[in-house]
Amino acid sequence: MTDIIVPEGLWDADVTPEGIVSNWFFADGATVSKDSVVAEIMVEKSTFDIETPTGGVLKHSVPKDGVIRPGTVIGTVNAG
Amino acid sequence: MTSNRILPMSRAISEAIAQEMRTDPSVFVMGEDIGAYGGIFGATSGLLDEFGDGRVRDTPISETGFIGAGVGAAMSGMRPIVELMFVDFFGVCMDSIYNLAAKNTYFSGGNYKVPMVIMTATGGGYSDAGQHSQTLHGTFAHLPGMKVVAPSNAYDAKGLMATAIRDDSPVMFMFHKGLQGLAWMASPDGAATVVPEDTYAIPFGQAKVVREGKDATIVTLSMMVHHALDAAEALAKEGIEAEVIDLRTIVPLDRDTILKSVAKTGRLIVVDEDYKSFGLTGEIIATVAEHDPTCLKSAPRRLAVPDVPIPYSRVMEQFVLPNAKTIADSVRASVKGA
């Protein structure tokens, strides 16, 4: 199982510590392929795409509109 | 290729533009904050990174100038997509839109085409006041020379944008802000859909029956499709089966699908987020009346914004906009009044 993690350094977390998951592009339980853009996060007015490092069955750990910080695991992918 | 990818409408639009830009070097995008910012409603996100600032051009706040430049570019062989940030801002640039873009094909005796897309944000519901909240569907549909598109969901938006870019006429592509799937504005569940990754085009002038029913026909478009579907869901629990038609394009208008549905149901309710008088709702009712008024079992009804500018006050704005409850009430009255 692989974690999908909000990367460090995308934005200045000292100024704005938190963001949200603004969109999931695949449903919970969907099969995704490696390097797909699976989610979008929003910090203030900026958005960032989040890719999955591996393919498999996606599970959302943070729902749409849920709060995230750098390093947050927003979902997992099970290669099973 | 099948896909299980769910895109919000904003991403579906930007993907359609990107795919057309990859295959046709004459396609480019201009507008306010459409570059680094990706469009304030996300319709051009990611384009600057892929195509650079030669083909994705931020403009000054000068709509008359840059829409006029778009007309000139289109007449010179390009296929510009020009974003008018809010449709409400048409006031300063209407000469470029309806005296240049819409008429130059006619004025040149057909010697020049104006293959241009004016992409613009419509709609209210989020307390942004009367100069940021109109849809103005009827304003642009009324003036000859432009095609007018207003999608209700991501799948349609992608296919209709591809058609808009390839069309040789000027096209007003009117997307509702509340359907774009932006983090800061609530969006109905049905607006984000599975969107194929391959390119595809949806022909203009083909309305879609998004829910079948035998008791009444609700004709609508854009955001109001979702409210109409919610109303139909509520009515079904009472045994009233409403058919819901999503027009998808206003010009050209798929009158056949409307007539066929009303011939079946005998009742017509038209719902539009635009102003009520002299507009789309009246046009749809006239279409049925001109064709065969005897197919109606009860008087046609229309729900639209009463003829006042959209209020800033949340309670007042919510009062003037049609919603699932007022649509259901209208259908109920139509069915029971017969």
TrEMBL record, chain A:
Which species?
Answer: Thalassovita taeanensis
* Name of this chain's protein: Biotin-requiring enzyme
According to the entry, every stretch annotated as the Lipoyl-binding domain falls at 17-75
Which Pfam families did the record assign? Biotin_lipoyl
Give the cofactors, semicolon-separated.
(R)-lipoate
Mind giving the lineage of the organism this protein is from? Bacteria, Pseudomonadati, Pseudomonadota, Alphaproteobacteria, Rhodobacterales
Its keywords, alphabetically, are:
Lipoyl
From TrEMBL, chain B:
Keywords assigned? Oxidoreductase, Pyruvate, Thiamine pyrophosphate
Which residues are in the Transketolase-like pyrimidine-binding domain? 7-182
Q: Which cofactor does it need?
A: thiamine diphosphate
Q: Name one GO molecular function term.
A: oxidoreductase activity
Q: What top-level branch of life does the organism fall under?
A: Bacteria
One Pfam family, short name: Transketolase_C
InterPro entries xrefs = THDP-binding, Transketo_C/PFOR_II, Transketolase-like_Pyr-bd, Transketolase_C
Which Gene3D superfamilies does this chain map to?
A: 3.40.50.920, 3.40.50.970
Q: Which SUPFAM superfamilies match?
A: Thiamin diphosphate-binding fold (THDP-binding) (SSF52518), TK C-terminal domain-like (SSF52922)
Which PANTHER family has this protein been placed in?
PYRUVATE DEHYDROGENASE E1 COMPONENT BETA SUBUNIT, PYRUVATE DEHYDROGENASE E1 COMPONENT SUBUNIT BETA
The name this protein goes by in its record: Pyruvate dehydrogenase E1 component beta subunit
Which organism is this entry from?
Answer: Thalassovita taeanensis
